[in-house]
Amino acid sequence: MGMENFQLKPGDLGFYGAGLTRPECVLCLADGTVITSHWDGGVSVIDGNGGRRDILGRRADGLPPVATNGFALTKAGEFLLADLHGKGGGAWRLSQNGDVRPLLVELDGQALPSANFVGVDHKDRIWITISTRHDPRALAYRPDVADGFIIIMDQKGARIVADDIGYTNEAIVDPSGEWLYVNETMARRTSRYRIKDDNSLGPRETFVEYGAGTYPDGLAFDEEGAFWMTSVVSNRVVRVATDRSQTIVIEENDPEQLAVVEKAFLAGELGREHMDSIQTEVMRSISSIAFGGPDRRTAYLGNLLDSKIYTFESPVPGFIPSHWNVRL
Where are the domains of the chain? Predict the structure, then answer.
């Protein structure tokens, strides 16, 4: 089956893992390992035989455990965690044996707010996204708020390279290595920035905008240069081709409930009560996508409200991520 005819129903999905704790983000390795975020301080590592171990760390400063949202894996086998907790924030390092220490918790003398995502690209640059400076974050669940930003960490240190973003979510370097693509959840678009030789970013470009009920969260490229986007709330997976055309691969939502959420969003009244009360049969607010399996054709969908992740087979392999050949 080619991509032009590729569409799925919720009943077509497989399931992977069990007993997971808010598996918001998913990473896959060449040896069949699948890793998900764990809300209580780290990650869950599922080996190729389905066996699971949780690597959970405790901060020495007495703060609550890192509430892992997005996370990355370095080539040295260290996890980099985005802390979505209101107390702590920033990004943290987690070793294989559970040691936790700061990666970046302040910048220019200011404590970092809750972080959404950490990514490592093929040049070992670290990208950290901060969705909003508002506290609580729900104050930024509005179409007229854009105070998110992106930090880069490279050989020159840490600095903000993009600002004024409409709720910054996943930020991924594309297969060409020339562009950083960013999901702006509450601006309902995927933007991109050209990466300059000094790792600064050019001006923001709107690559694609989404319609009612779509709240872009996760992002992964395939080998054709297209990207796959996951929308929380509406449980939509949208594939966006290089010509910017959009295909909804799968979705699962109650149109009446989605209309209520949409009305609240446009009125500036969207809150956690809307985000956390999704009523569906299968998918419970999908938030991320990663390609795994021996040929990177198995898509794994992370989510906010379930204790397992969802899978399907893609006609197109995923683009190889920087962590693909790491062995844990």
Answer: 3-313
Whether pLDDT at 57 is above 90: yes
Q: What is the pLDDT of residue 214?
A: 97
DSSP-assigned letters across all residues of 37-106: EETTTEEEEE-TTS-EEEEE---TTSPPPP-EEEEEE-TTS-EEEEE--TTT-SEEEE-TT--EEEEESE
Alpha carbons within 13 angstroms on the beta-carbon side of residue 240 total 22
Which has more pLDDT, 63 or 115?
115
- Please identify which residue in the block is written with the tokens 């999704």: 278
The vertex-8 CA angle with 314 and 215, nearest 5°, equals 90
Is the pLDDT reported for residue 286 higher than 80?
Answer: yes
Helix (H) or strand (E) holding 262: helix 255-266
What architecture (CATH level 2) is domain 3-313? 6 Propeller (2.120)
Stretch (H or E) spanning 248: strand 246-251
Residue 19 pLDDT greater than 80, yes or no: yes
pLDDT at residue 121 in the model = 98
